[in-house]
Amino acid sequence: MPANEDQIKFWNEKAGQDWVLLQERMDANLADIGDAVLALARPAPGEAVLDVGCGTGATSLALAKAGAKVTGLDVSKPMLGLARSRAIQAGLDIAFIEADASAYAFQPEYDLIFSRFGVMFFDDPILAFANLHRALKPGGRLAFVCWRTPPENLWAFTPLTAAKPFLPEQPPPDPNAPGPFAFADPQRVLSILTDVGFHNVETSKFDGVMRMGGDIATIAAQTLQIGPLSRAVGEADEATRAKIVEAVRGAMVKFAAPDGEIAPPAACWLVSARKERKA
Ligand SMILES: C[S@@+](CC[C@H](N)C(=O)[O-])C[C@H]1O[C@@H](n2cnc3c(N)ncnc32)[C@H](O)[C@@H]1O
Fold first, then answer.
1. Which residue ranges make up each domain of the chain?
2. Helix, strand, coil shares, percent, the chain, to 5
3. 73 in ligand 1 pocket by Cβ < 6 Å?
4. Successive 10-residue mean pLDDT values, the chain, 279 residues
5. Whose CA is nearest to atom 24 of ligand 1?
6. Distances (CA, A) of 63 to 43, 142, 197
7. Pairing label, strands 265-274, 95-98
8. Atom of ligand 1 at shortest distance to CA of 58?
9. What's the confidence (pLDDT) of residue 239?
10. pLDDT score for 173
């Protein structure tokens, strides 16, 4: 099977289309985390930046607004389509490439490789990060954010737990399989990055929240449309889905913040590294 075939299909079909439909919601959910990884990356005016797995473009736009010369790269045609039109609408000159980050023939032209949750989906992370390492200029840097473990990420774990009684028994997931939680183990991240030649690898915890809005019925329904529960629910029938929505609704309401917004914990790793200055 060609590399990353399952993920490329996934992000071009339902997941990509749902991210396009829910772009504003997803950007609001992830805004605080996006700000944290931008602060880590410190893009400078004129720097060449590659936004890996740029999706619908929120962080590519933010990097360009900071004055960087941005290239957004993604495998998802529908998500890139929206990213392109958002950049045009904002009057920002951003290049977008539809390609697999693990296979694209990069030149060593970037000062910064950046990603908000776009680097955990590779079949072979060593191959992918070796390729991204090649894309950096000597002395260039890497900055990305990825999720910690599911039990720390109650935005995902609570809906999954609430849905469990209504779904067939599943074998325990492979924690290293491509997917949102593939980089939950910081030792794994450290070993992948050092194996491919990165230096000064640092991981630090960022404990944020997922800002999901205030409408609990919509939030419950959306957990079956996008994110880890949507994958687990698969082809469940309408009656089962309705029961799961009710259970998720009951379980998520406890995360209401004083302003009424549902804001469950979102636990991340902020990861940074450097390519050596001399070849
Ligand atoms: C969770 S989404 C994050 C999107 C965006 N960075 C954001 O924060 O809104 C993951 C993104 O990674 C992209 N992706 C997955 N595998 C990829 C690969 N091998 N090369 C490039 N992009 C990939 C997906 O298409 C998707 O847009």
1. 5-153+174-213+266-274
2. 45, 20, 35
3. yes
4. 92 96 97 98 98 98 98 98 98 98 98 98 98 98 98 97 94 93 98 98 97 96 94 91 97 95 97 90
5. 53
6. 7, 14, 26
7. unpaired
8. 9
9. 96
10. 87
Task: Check if CATH label 3.40.50.150 holds for domain 5-153+174-213+266-274.
Answer: yes
Q: Which of 5, 97, 121, 225 to mutate to test ligand 1, by most ligand atoms within 8 A of the CB atom? A: 121
User: What are the backbone angles phi and psi of residue 244, rounded to the nearest 5°?
Assistant: -65, -40
Query: What's the CA gap between 74 and 96, in Å, rounded?
Result: 8
Cα 52 to middle of ligand 1, angstroms: 7
Angle at 191 between CA 181 and CA 271, to 5 degrees: 60
- Ligand 1 site, residue 4, Cβ cutoff 6 A: yes
Nearest CA to ligand 1 atom 19: 100
Take residue 137 and report the two structure tokens written for it: 């200029």
Query: What number of other Cβ atoms are within 10 A of residue 97's Cβ?
Result: 14
Q: What are phi and psi of 91, to 5 degrees?
A: 70, 30
Task: Give how far the C-alpha of residue 105 lies from the chain's centroid of Cα atoms, to the nearest Å.
Answer: 22
Is 110 a pocket residue for ligand 1 (Cβ < 6 Å)? no
Model pTM greater than 0.85? yes
Distance 83 CA to ligand 1 centre (A): 12
| pLDDT at 279 (0 to 100) | 59
Q: From the CB of 54, is ligand 1 less than 6 Å away?
A: yes
